């Protein structure tokens, strides 16, 4: 069974950094890509970026380019989201999700981890 578990969120001051982790199990690397999303209070879920198990990030949404970096550790079956120069508008619940390569549909989601940035 595919499982995704995020961790690493917390309260941080503006300008600080966080590294979020997404521990996966049950994934077949050739079948899925991994994506990061976030949802701020009162807003729709926003796509942040994606990576496949070859380690190539394929996309970052414009609002996070240059500050967010997605990476992976295949030995640990874990994907990371490094967030630098945090801004209050980055406050959100951050989710990782697995998409089928064949369809691009996100079919498995983690429970999310809260990131709160104080000004």
Could you please describe the fold and organization of this structure?
The protein has no helices and eleven strands. The termini are far apart. It is 0% helix and 56% strand. It is mainly beta.
Task: Please summarize what this structure is.
The protein has strands at residues 3-7, 10-13, 18-25, 32-39, 46-52, 57-60, 68-73, 78-83, 92-100, 106-109, 113-118. It has 119 residues and is an all-beta fold. The termini are far apart.
Q: What's the topology here?
A:
Layout: E1 3-7, E2 10-13, E3 18-25, E4 32-39, E5 46-52, E6 57-60, E7 68-73, E8 78-83, E9 92-100, E10 106-109, E11 113-118
Parallel strand pairs: 2-11
Antiparallel strand pairs: 1-3, 3-8, 4-5, 4-9, 5-6, 7-8, 9-10, 9-11
């Amino acid at each position: 069974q595919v499982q995704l578990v995020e961790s690493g969120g917390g309260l941080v001051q503006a300008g600080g950094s966080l590294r979020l982790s997404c521990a996966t199990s049950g994934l077949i690397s050739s079948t899925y890509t991994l994506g990061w999303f976030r949802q701020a209070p009162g807003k729709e879920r926003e796509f942040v970026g994606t990576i496949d198990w070859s380690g190539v990030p394929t996309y970052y949404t414009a609002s996070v380019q240059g500050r967010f970096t997605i990476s992976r550790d295949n030995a640990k079956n874990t994907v990371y989201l490094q967030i630098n120069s945090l801004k209050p508008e980055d406050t959100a619940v951050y989710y990782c999700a697995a998409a089928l390569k064949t369809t691009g549909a996100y079919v498995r989601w983690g429970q999310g981890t809260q990131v709160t940035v104080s000004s």
